[in-house]
Amino acid sequence: MPHPPFREVLIAGCGRIGRQLGLALAGDGSRVLGLRRRPDALPAEIEPVAADLTDPDGLAAALRGRRPEAVFYIATPPAYTDDGYREAYVLGQRNLIEALQINGASPAWQCFVSSTGVYGQDDGGWVDEDSPTEPQRFSGRRLLDAEAVALGAPWPATVVRFAGIYGPGRGRLLRRVREGAACRDEPPRWTNRIHEADCVGFLAHLARLAGPERRYIGVDDEPATQCTVMDWLAQRMGCPPPPREAGDGAGMGRRCRNRRLHDSGYRLRYPGFRDGYAAMLESGGTE
Prior knowledge:
alpha/beta; two-stranded parallel sheet; globular
């Protein structure tokens, strides 16, 4: 059975994905609160909440009187450093949970947006939600810490691990192909991705489920090697094929399964990279 719309939803870290998600949930009939340091640019359908997730006292004051039934945590680190990730994902989320409790709020459900960077596998093999998580990079370790905070909250929670988000305004790979960047095919480097529209769509879908799982991998149906994607883009864009570079013993990445995403009933708008990038190219790279 689908879940009726939550009366009030808080999106903490209401940036690019959060704004689109907020509009989708407002369309379902939810009152949506968008929390960010400077929320002035949020659309009218999202009620602004000005707060800093790293300021416990200010956060508690900003949430006074709020009783969200659902919470989405979609933060962005201030810097690509260990401290930046700990601040944004671990400490910020702890502060938010505490602020909600101080104000007497007890959401029915919380969703933390994470990354497939929590996996450490680098042999080209397959991973799913039950695979070991032994990240080698600080970013993956801090996200794994943050997942533990979310799943240890005093209310039900779900973690969504996205990979390689692309879409309008996210044309970095298109620029690399135009600039003649090299790719690695020996050994092959496996990549995973999901279109931004499907990130938003899947998160909204989870809010409509009566009992979402605790963990999901959010990727499309087609893991592909780096050269496979770049060769296809070069052909479509009328660019020379990307030159090859040696792997020099580098890892092969991993392939992520999305069976649980499909089992939830969600249907991808862009099932593979060809679908999503074709739409971007047809609209001049910005869709």
